[in-house]
Design goal:
The chain has 16 helices and 14 strands. The protein folds into two domains: 216 residues, Rossmann fold; 156 residues, Rossmann fold. The protein has a six-stranded parallel beta sheet with strand order 2-1-3-4-7-8, with helices on both faces. Strands 11-10-9-12-13-14 form a six-stranded parallel beta sheet, with helices on both faces. It has 389 residues and is an alpha/beta fold. Helix 1 links the parallel strand 1 and strand 2. The mean pLDDT is 94. 43% of the residues lie in helices and 16% in strands. The chain is globular, with a radius of gyration of 22 Å.
């Protein structure tokens, strides 16, 4: 079997890029022939009007993909991201050559202009059930810009009218049932949606020594809810734990200046992936405080692989990964008091209870998020698509 991976890289490396590389390595290590066609936003067209039109339909991307497919003759085209340079035109190029298409849905771009289902610091579903997503223009959802949002609105609407997403793509991969339900509401065919969570290779061993520390790993940006975490942390009367914050981002300087020297908070900034896994294996908990419905949580399964329980908000797909009191804790989303209450009870968790949760975190990884299981799921989807053709 020969798979062609298609991806439009963003300027800054993110989770989609990580998943792309992991799946590439997984397929290659199992003897699958994998080739790639990629675009990079660093080379984006400076002519903004031309960029806007190519977001809706890129003639150059169509031609390039068409030639690429003719020359390489893959069995399946597996698309990860088309925005903004490749555009949905590439689906039509593959369809013209009768090459099956699989699309992994990494974000909410099919139903939301800013791809996050987030507005004013809280989840927003105004456009999910609409076919004409006019609210995105009304609220200037993409980069808080009316003019930047308009091309995305037209991309969604025109390709809804053309039936691109309904008829040209043969299978969609989503990571959770929550994401599947959102996409069904958004108009994607239920029969074409397959749930396949992500995976990690690293099966890190349980650390010989755990420190009394809770670790946050992620971009220091408003949508990640770091300020919510810090407000909850300084509200604790006392704690034997230390809060370790790993990551960088636009809010880091502001938050570090205000909270940086308060109550056992350690800022580590950007760290290599190897060091992050080491910190995870020495921490007693990973905490997530996202304000939006994250489509998955690579940090969560990395924590599980290192036997580290996870604290996260009880919304989106998180409750599908975390069983409250078993492999972690869930708190009321966007609620500083609920998060404070959850953090405050950690001091009362004895070693026996923590060991129980740690073991179940590891069991969650071994049952659902190993490369072996993921490869079987992926190949099953590929075979279904090929059989359907």
């Amino acid at each position: 079997m020969k798979i062609a991976q298609i991806h439009n890289y963003y300027i800054h490396r993110g989770g989609e890029d990580v998943v792309l590389d992991l799946e590439y390595e997984l397929l290659r290590s199992n003897g699958v022939d994998v080739i790639r066609f990629t675009a990079k936003n660093k080379k984006i067209e400076k002519n903004l009007l031309r960029t806007a039109f190519s977001t809706i339909w890129s003639f150059s991307a169509y031609r390039c993909i068409y030639r690429f497919l003719i020359n390489n003759k893959p069995d399946i085209l597996h698309v990860h991201n088309t925005f903004p340079q490749l555009s949905p035109s590439i689906y039509w190029a593959a369809s013209a050559l009768k090459i099956p298409i699989v699309q992994t849905i990494h974000n909410y771009r099919f139903v939301c202009a800013n791809a996050l289902l987030l507005r004013k610091g809280a989840p927003c579903e105004l456009c999910v059930d609409k076919r004409v997503r006019i609210y995105s223009i009304f609220y200037s959802c993409y980069r808080r810009s009316f003019f930047a949002t308009v091309p995305i609105f037209w991309m969604q609407f025109i390709h809804y009218l053309l039936g691109t997403y309904q008829h040209k793509v043969d299978a969609y991969i989503v990571m959770t049932n929550f994401l599947k339900k959102i996409m069904i509401r958004g108009g994607l065919p239920k029969s074409k949606l397959y749930v396949k969570p992500h995976f990690v290779f690293k099966k890190t061993q349980k650390s010989c020594r755990r420190f009394f520390q809770i670790i946050f790993i992620g971009r220091i940006a408003s949508e990640k809810g770091v300020e919510l975490l810090l407000k909850a942390w300084i509200s604790l009367k006392q704690s034997k734990y230390k809060l370790v914050i790993v990551g960088d981002g636009p809010q880091k300087i502001e938050l570090q200046n205000y909270y940086g020297f308060k109550k056992n908070i350690k800022w580590l900034g950007w760290q290599s992936h190897k060091d992050i896994l080491e910190y995870l294996s020495h921490s007693r908990y990973l905490v997530l405080t996202s304000l939006w419905y994250e489509t998955f949580g690579m940090n969560i399964i990395e924590a599980f692989s290192s036997s580290t329980p996870v604290i996260a908000p009880a919304f989106g797909g998180f409750p599908e990964l975390i069983v409250d009191g078993v492999n972690g804790f869930l708190y009321k989303p966007l609620n500083v008091y609920s998060l404070t209450e959850t953090l405050s009870k950690l001091d009362g968790i004895n070693d026996s209870k923590w060991n129980f949760m740690s073991e179940h975190a590891r069991k969650s990884y071994e049952k659902y998020y190993t490369p072996e299981r993921n490869f079987k799921l992926m190949m099953s989807i590929y075979r279904n698509v090929l059989d359907g053709k």
